[in-house]
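G., the chain you wanted modeled:
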Amino acid sequence: MRSLEIVLPILIGGYVLWPVVAGRRRPPWVNAVPLLAVGVLLLHLLLEGGRWQMIPLHLLAGVTAVAGAWGLGRPRTEEFRRRSWQGAGLMGTAVVVAAAAALPGLLPVPDVPPPTGPYAVGTVTLVLVDDTRAEIYADTAGGPRRFLIQVWYPALPERSDQPAPWMENVGIVAPAIAEWLSLPSFFLDHLELAHTSSYLEAPVDPAGAPYPLLIFSHGWGGFRAQNTFQMQELASHGYVVVGMEHTYGAVVTVFPDGSVADNDPAALPEDVPDAEYDAAARRLVQQWIGDMAFALDKLEAWNRMDPAGRFTGVLDGTRVGVLGHSTGGAAAVEFCATNVRCGAGLGMDVWMTPVSEATLEGGVAQPFLFLFSEQWPTAKNQALFERLRQGSNPADRTLTILGTDHYDFSDLPALSPLAPQLGLKGPIPGRRVQQIINAYSLAFFGQALKGEPTLLLAGPSPAYPEVRFDG
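Predicted structure as tokens:
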């Protein structure tokens, strides 16, 4: 909860419980507390912004303000005569206040941790259109492939630059995520209040250029900013990170012209024979690696001459890494297996079904770090992964983060303390998982792309006892 959201229930609760705790009627200064609460409420709306989870507390602030004003008109300080029905009423009111305070606590405004690197971070979202590839999904099939990317990069923010929202087009994207998670569509409307430590369209910091490139691919039903905690951290340490948003595979895509591309269930159909499902998964990932290759083509072109003047001369196309989660992890594997520009890969809970037979047999030559959650892998996925590992770089590392689940490799656990009950995380604290993922991501790409030696990948570390080395 935000600061004023915490103060408000404290003031209301203190007013309600005074007669029970003090054993006497409220003196004038206590009757004035609800009026102070109304002032805090107004400041909260002005400075922090309102959200539906706070409505019960807003109503209680109004009710107690009326009661407090009435008490000020009839101040009585004599001893409070305890009556059972009065005590029960006060305690019942206290329970209502507690419940009202719990609601915003259970659905807080997500807090994306600030990056720890030496660089400030800028971000920009761009539309890419690949006229050489046809769209194969939804009602735009046959037209040119169009998708979004969001780029995080080392920046020199100016005084006028604004912090970027965690999620753009919240009015469309938040209901789509809520429905994906089987929640009411309005449940995540407050995400419009969440901001990041990145600055919108800030100038690139040229001090450390040229910067290595990293391309991130989200999972099925994900979105480009789902790993903002990781994207910001990498950018703050001197990488340019490109978050893909694979149209029709993302939960929803909103283009700047206002057009909306919903997730296409037919791209990964359920209730079909296994062979048909597996073929659809491979087809999906082939479309995604085409997106990644085209994005890399554009970045290389912008490095030569960026019409926007942002990326000219600051990108190092000879040092390219890819990373992905779930289906995006499969895309990362396939991209490195088929594109010589890939220098290293990081797969997080890689879903192996979409990986082609050729890649399973031949492996991946580039260095790879595989991070798995403890609860997600299935027997089929593990068997396919073992096939891949047999033919891949023998120096690759496979690690399991104990106490984690599939969505721990994203920002989603920050949505609520109830994330474990919603199936969004394992028992380990979410912030701790992010620290572990960031530490190993930086160590791996630092070693693979920057030539920075690290002991973190050599074996178990006492700093991260939750990490198990599986090979």
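Residues 257 and 406 are 34 Å apart (CA to CA).

Shout if anything looks off.
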